[in-house]
Amino acid sequence: MLQYDLVVVGGGPAGMAAALRARDFGIQNIIILERAETLGGILEQCIHTGFGLHYFGEELSGPEYAARFIELVEDQKIEYKTDTMVMDVTEDKVVTAINKEDGLLKIQAKAVILAMGCRERPRGALSIAGTRASGIMTAGTAQKYVNIDGYMPGRKIVILGSGDIGLIMARRMTLEGAEVKMVCELMPYSGGLTRNIVQCLDDFGIPLYLSTTVIATHGKDRLEGVTVAQVDDKLQPIPGTEKYVECDTLMLSVGLIPENELTRNIGISMDRITNGAVVNEMRETDCEGIFACGNVLHVHDLVDYVTIEAQIAGEGAAKYILNQQEQNVQYVHITAGNGVRYTVPQKVNIRSKDDIKVYFRVGQIYKNAKVVLTCGGKVVSSKKKIKLAPGEMENVIIPDEVLNSLSDTDQIVVEVEA
Amino acid sequence: MVFDVVIIGAGVSGCMIARELSKYQLNIALLERASDVAMGASKANSGIVHAGFDAKPNTLKAKMNLRGNALMEQVCKDLSVPYKRNGSLVLAFSDEEMQTLQELYERGIANEVDGMSILNREQLLSIEPNIGDEAVGALRAETAGIVCPYSLTIAAAEVAVMNGVELKRNCEVTAIDFSDGIFTLHTTLGDVRSSFVINAAGCFADDVSRMIGDDSLHIVARRGEYYILDKSVGNLVTHTIFQCPSKMGKGILVAPTTHGNLLIGPSAIDIDDKDDVSTTSEGLKEVSSLALKSVPGATTRFAITSFSGNRAHDIKNDFTIEPSKVNDHFIHVAGIESPGLTGSPAVAELVAEILGSMIELKEKQEYVKTREKPFRYHQATDEERVAAIAKNPSYGRIVCRCESITEGEILDAIHAPAGALDVDGVKRRTRAGMGRCQGGFCGSKVVELLARELHTDVRNIKKCGGNSDILFDKSK
């Protein structure tokens, strides 16, 4: 069995940033295992710009953002294996992986960072009636065909779901000469970033129909059209509003699901809302020495935040390996209060010597609402926000002195005051 | 060339018949109008090996069911097809339905079905704790099982091809002439001549029959819609859970599949367009709500896909397996709805018997009986994996992440006898793309592998035959 201090599962932005930070903290014996042919993860197919505004203070394309980290990984001589699929991770941190060259790899790690990313929700999960013709695909699959493989997967396109990938692909397909007829969104608001709605739809005159969904697909071999309909406030189609739209392609951008099969197999506690692991402020799961970060932990809207989160996990793993973790641990659960769907982390050590930034998402659109943080019954902060939207991740900071003043029976609540 | 036997239709009946007849010294062609075998009801059914208490005593359905059930385990062993004798339960939700169970039990006894018992609620819950609150009892049938229906069909076709059967896909029969004791079948791939014809054309058996002037068959396409649920709920039940049957069929079932998913369905509605396998919101709604009555945990929140299939329902409500009254060298295998999958090995035997009564069947010396088990990464032990990757490194590259399917397995499927020609063909042979992401990640890789191995441009690779193009022009 091979021995490594740290095994990082996934060589996307999260995995790379985590490995690099662990190296900064002095961990030498690190290996990144990546299932694709190259490092970089999904960024490699995101050839549009908009990455790095927060982290680097400049606008980069996906491959450029990834390249900066790949260079650092190379410079730092961090070992990695691509085209290598991790098949299993145990509680005792034995990692099993396979590839063509090494066959079956067994690695005993001191710490493991899970950074497998997420996948797109497929059609089947939506129960759209109709045929199973070709031309129905997720937006990410279409993006790979166009940007990596160099082929157009359609000419006349309807997009269901206004997640960021769907919006980006509306613009991408238009630029490639396809006709994007509409973007339909089941909810009364878009789940995408405002800047993407402006730059990808409005600027190209592509209509966005809110509270509208696709209820049927038509065409025996290749898709020939879809039926769209408006939905009521219970999200049920309203009879009489059905409309046939001719198209050869239906692209789905209806949500991302963290890829947590490995995590679940270890038996790690999961958050039912994020579909990721429950973690503490260092992004450590309830299985000691196993950390999670990036989209496998919860779906992020910006890669910049993925990087920051991964650095926290990298630091946490390094301290775990070096036995420098805070010994005196007393966790308090963070409650997602009114209007807040979830928080990450879900629990914090009240003996932490640092301020803790808590990330969260709201459940609906709020205008001029307040984000209120309450610790042990006292309001710690109350910040007015012009707009809060489910598509944009927010955060609040718990100062260390506030944390240290709490007892383990106290509560921490993050909520929205409309 | 004149074939001895031409089989029209490469569903489970046609393929099992081809496999059976390929034991003998016969020149056989197997014609299929679709782009692959198992494209009709054979790929879209419940995958149940029925115990045999449903069919009326002395019907062909009852006979074929009992015999097929007895043969299935060995057939699946020979063909290396997933099979499990998991037993079935018919639930009763009222005292009246308990009476129905009694009738089914008695019918089962008349059909000589072994291993049946009637359970009260307590006994039921002791073997299936996740059953709904309304169930008051159940009919248990220990001999029932599950099989992967398209795997069985594909494996049978492979063995038939290995034994010399000529499989012609995309070959639709449009007209049939008969003169001088020889049938000439006009097809989309040219004329095919044969001494005997076996009509295993599923929903279209009556249309094919009319081509020789025989209008004795009346086949209705009875659509059934299903959901496949994620493996995370695959062990909610271990038995196949039926509700009491109605005149349209065996009702909505909740069943584990041989691959570890949970299947719910089918609805049952007769439709006009035999080719229409679209799902409907009404049908899917019916399936999802009725299944909850049996197993409350089987919610469509866990759905990974839905599909529908058209069963070939004969209005006389029994199988027709006999020579046509118009021409006895034209043998009908028609109206093969449930329990047609269960009965398929028996149906094949019966067809060989009918043929054997008209011509002498001589066994081949070199008949290949078994199909070697293909390498399956996810089923292999670590030692087997190490050995397989050492021998063929492509077994070390995962293409389908959700189902852990390797490149090597996909290459095997493409190069197999009766190998995969398109993306769905790869999917049915390997399960690549059948998992949670439904091909989101691996679809484009499968397209690439197909193009490379079949020496063609990626733009020629289809999803599922016909005009189901995937890629158009090059991007700019």
In summary, what is this structure?
Chain A has 418 residues and is an alpha/beta fold.
Count of DSSP H/I helices of chain A: 8
Percentage beta strand of chain B: 15-25%
* Major β-sheet profile of chain A: 7 strands, mixed
CATH architecture of the largest domain in chain A: 3-Layer(bba) Sandwich
Helix content of chain B: 25-40%
Q: What do we call the CATH homologous superfamily of the largest domain in chain A? A: FAD/NAD(P)-binding domain
Number of domains of chain A: 3
Q: Note the quaternary state here.
A: heterodimer
DSSP helical segment count of chain B:
12
Q: Biggest interface: chains and residue counts?
A: A-B, 55 and 57 residues
What class, by secondary structure content of chain B? alpha+beta
Q: What is the strand content of chain A?
A: 25-35%
Radius of gyration of chain B: 22 Å
Major β-sheet of chain B, in short?
A: 8 strands, mixed
Low-confidence stretches of chain B: none
Describe the 3D structure.
The complex is a heterodimer of chains A (418) and B (476). Helices cover 21% and strands 34% of the residues of chain A. Chain A has 418 residues and is α/β, with parallel strands linked by helices. Chain B is 30% helix and 23% strand. Chain B has twelve helices and 22 strands. Chain B has helices at 12-21, 60-79, 95-110, 121-127, 149-162, 205-210, 281-294, 340-356, 382-391, 407-415, 423-430, 443-453, and strands at 2-8, 28-31, 48-49, 83-84, 88-92, 116-120, 137-141, 145-147, 166-168, 173-179, 182-187, 190-199, 219-229, 240-242, 253-256, 262-265, 269-271, 303-314, 320-323, 330-334, 398-400, 405-406. In chain B, the strands form five sheets. In chain B, strands 1, 2, 9, 10, 11, 12, 19 and 20 form an eight-stranded mixed sheet that branches. In chain B, strands 13, 15, 16, 17 and 18 form a five-stranded antiparallel sheet that branches. In chain B, strands 6-7-5-14 form a four-stranded mixed sheet. At the A-B interface, β10, α3 and β15 of A face α7, β18, α9 and α12 of B.
